[in-house]
Amino acid sequence: MSQRTREAGKSEARERLLNTATRIFYAEGIHSVGIDRIVAEAQVTRATMYRHFTGKEDLVLAYLKQADQDLRAQVEAAQAAEESGAGKVRAVCRAITAGIRSPGFRGCAFLNAAAEYPDPEHPVHQAVLAHRQWFQQTVTELLAQTGSAPAGPAGRHLVMLRDGAMASGCLSDPELVCETFLQGVEGILQARAA
């Protein structure tokens, strides 16, 4: 077997592990799922798992990194479709509601992970905080384009609305949650324009 074939096999196995872990961690929680189950469902050996990840924590961090990259791409795509700051904010928020309406929605992967890793010094908790800092900074910068008042309070308000929508979206009617969230966003935008 050539080096290229071995590397392709390794990356395919890593991808299966990460995809399996992502599916199960998101649906069932992180602490409730053991490595044996992930290895079995990904159809790899334990040795293959440890060749790609140093342990479960490393796999959890890879899961969150992938979720972060996916959300950044989603936010960038939403913004690219609009020209005005308000339009960009609305597009990002519509993308959030599309997620809430999606089959199998179980809330925010990052809020869920923070609940399972409450120690602020833990690497998983740190990954959650880094993602949240990026998101808050992104929406604050977008909101700064919608009015002259400082955008920090509006950015924090939007993140809180989003957090509430993500938590409520898997507990009650997602349509009502999305409608309420988008109304709240419109309230923020109207206040910024006033």
Most strands sheet: none
Q: Assembly type of the shown chains?
A: single chain
The unreliable regions are 1-9
What fold name stands as the CATH topology of the largest domain? Tetracycline Repressor, domain 2
Distance between the amino and carboxyl termini: 67 Å
Element-by-element helix/strand order: HHHHHHHHH
Fraction in beta strands: under 5%
Helices, by number, come to 9
Number of domains: 2
Q: Quick one: CATH superfamily of the largest domain?
A: Tetracycline Repressor, domain 2
Please state the overall shape, judged from the principal axes of the Cα atoms.
Answer: elongated
Q: How many DSSP-defined strands?
A: 0
The CATH class of the largest domain turns out to be: Mainly Alpha
The CATH architecture assignment of the largest domain turns out to be: Orthogonal Bundle
Global mean pLDDT: 94
Summing up helix and strand content along with how strands pair, one would put the structural category as mainly alpha
What helical percentage do the residues reach? Answer: over 70%
